[in-house]
Fold these 2 entries.
Entry 1:
Amino acid sequence: PVNVYPTQKEAVKHVAHRIAGLIRSKQEVGGQTVLGLATGVTPIGVYQELVRLHKEEGLSFKNVITFNLDEYYPMQPDAAQSYVTFMNENLFNHIDIDQSKVHIPNGTLDKDAVAAFCMDYERKIEDLGGLDLQILGIGRTGHIGFNEPGSAPNSGTRLVTLDDLTRSDASRDFGGKENVPTKAITMGIGTIFKAREIILMAWSQRKASIIKKAVEGEISSDVPATYLQLSDNVEFVLDAGAASDLT
Ligand code: F6R
C-alpha cells in the first residue's frame, strides 16, 4: 500500500511507532527483532523518534539485531562519511543496543575478501530467521540500498558500482564528486525482498518524480525500486511532496 501523510513529521512518527511496536511485541515473548536499516537523510527523523522513545518511554534495543543495507567501498569505519559513523551518530550512540548485534558492510576489506564477506552477511541474516523489517529510502536513480539501475531482482549482497547521479548527490558529503567512492557493498534486491515487512520512505518534491516511477511505472531493472510493486509486504510511506506526482 501507499500511505501519504500531510507532513514528514507525521509520516516519521508512523514509521518509528511501527518499529517500536514490533520490538515490543517480540520482546514480550522473549524474542529478538532483526531490523534492516538505511542511512541517508530520509531515515534521520525516524532514528530521532526512536531515540526519544528510548529516552522517554523506555523502549529498549537490547533484543534488537541490526543489518545495514550498505557501505561505501573502500571506506574506513571512522571516516566522517562512513555509514558506521552515520549510524553511531544518528542512532546507536543514543540507545542501549549491544554493539555485537550491529552489522554494517565492511568497507575495509581487500577486494578478494569481499565476496566471502557478502556470502557471510547473507548467511548471518538467514541464520537469525531473516529480517523482520527492512526500512528503505530511494535514490533519484531509483536505487534501493545501492542497487542501481541494471540490478537483478534476485541479486544478493555484493560489490557494486555507484551510478553517476548517486555520486553527484553524495558529492556535498565528500567535498566534491571526485572524492566519492565509485563502489559500495550493498544488500541485493533479493536480500531486501526476503524481509517480512518493507517500508520505503520518501520526503519532499525532490523525490516526487522517482516515486511516481517506483509506484506507478513499469516494473524494470531500469528503476530497481519498481520491483517492490511485486511484493505484498511493502508499504510506501510518503509525505505530500513526495506523493505529488502520483495519479
Ligand atoms: C542508504 C541507501 C540509499 C538511500 C538513498 C536515499 O543506506 O541505501 O538507498 O536510501 O540514496 O538517500 P537520501 O535519504 O539521503 O535521500
Entry 2:
Amino acid sequence: GLNERQMTTEDGSVEAAAPRPARILEVNRLVHTFGDFTALNDVSLSANSREFVTLLGPSGSGKSTLLRILAGLELPTRVDALILDGHDVADVPANRRNVATVFQHYGLFPHLNVLENVEYGLRVRKVAKAERRQRALRMLEQVQLADFAHRNIAKLSGGQKQRVALARSLVLEPVILLLDEPLGALDEKLRIDMQVELLQLQRSLGMTFIYVTHSQEEALTMSDRILLMNQGRIVQEGTPEDMFDRPASRFAASFMGMEN
Ligand code: ADP
Ligand code: MG
C-alpha cells in the first residue's frame, strides 16, 4: 500500500522504505472559536496508520470545522500539538501538508475530462507528463473508471463524479485522506454501494481515512473506530461495537440508536 512508501528494486521486487509511524495523526487539546462561539472545545484525537476513523455527530457538532483544521484550510485558535506523520503542523497551511480532502460537492473542473482532472494536482506539483499519466490511469483503475478516462465530466453520474474526486485526491498519495460527508449527495442505493467501495479502496491502499458523517448507520458499517461528537466535544470513542452496545451517555444512546 501507499503507506509503506514502497520502492521497486532492480530485480523488480518491492521493498518498504522508511515506514510511517504507526501513529499517523495526533491532536492534543484543540480549541477553535468563531468570535465568542466555541466550535471545538478541548478536542484530542489520534489515528493510526491504515485506520478508518469516523467523526460522527449531529449537524453543528463541529465535524467539518475539525476536518478543515486537519486539512490546514483553517488554523486552530489554540492547540497543544497537531502531529501529522511525525511533524508538528499546527501552523502549516494546507498547501504544505500532505493530506487530501474529498467533499460532498466534488469541485471537479467541468472543462477538463476525467483523466485531466485526476492529473491536475500532479501537474501543479510539476510531475513529468509520462509519470503523471501513468499514475492517473492507475488510480482510475483503482476506482473502476479506467474506461472513462476521456469522458467529459458533465456526462458522468453522481457516483462516477465522486469516484473521480476520490481518484484526484488519492493520486497525490496523501498521508491521510479526509472525507467530509462524501456520499451525502447520493441516493440511498448508490450510497450503500459506495460505502462498500470506499472501504475496499481504503483497505487495498492501506491508507488512513478520517471520515465525517452524521449517519450512525454509515459510521457503524465502515469504521475501525468512531469518535462521537456533540457541541464541539468528542463525547465518546470506541469501536462500532463499543459505541452501539455500550453508549456512555444518554446522548450517545439516543444518537447511536437513531434511525436515519
Ligand atoms: P458540522 O460539520 O458538525 O455540521 P460545523 O463544523 O460545520 O459542524 O459547525 C460547527 C459550529 O460552528 C456550528 O454551530 C456552525 O454554525 C459554526 N461555524 C462553522 N463555521 C463557522 C464560521 N465560519 N463562522 C461562524 N460560525 C461557524
Ligand atoms: Mg459538516
